[in-house]
Amino acid sequence: MAIKSFQGARKQQQESSKEFPFKVSDIMTKDLITFKPEQSVEDVIDSLIKYKISGGPVVNDNYELVGMISEGDCLKQISESRYYNMPVEIDIVEKRMIKNVETIDGNMNVLDAANKFLDSKRRRFPIVENGKLIGQISQKDILKAALDLKGHDWK
Question: Which of 33, 107, 147, 150 is found 20 to 30 A from 81 (Cα to Cα)?
């Protein structure tokens, strides 16, 4: 009796000409909606709704990252304004934004970035180079890259 292979027929591995992103800088969003520290929170809320985003970076006139503002920050402002019976439009971004912002390196591997998201419970990380904001990566960006990598090695 001869030994048969139980692996079945082997598929020819096709060389893929498409390069898949492995670094954060390859998949990050570069065309960002940013906010200014002196901007009103009401303007931010309008932008969040209009562009269907959950937050964004706050930059100064030199495009240096000074903070991040999110839906949660805006919700706090709405809640407190109602509690203290204060108008929403008088609050500015600088008072509500998170100032101690954790950034991510654009040269980081996408899978390492995914782990960083899991460890930090953040939804987005800005990418800064030479003091200037150059992009942002979100959990959704990594999910999109994972779909592109489907069926390929995770090297």
Answer: 33
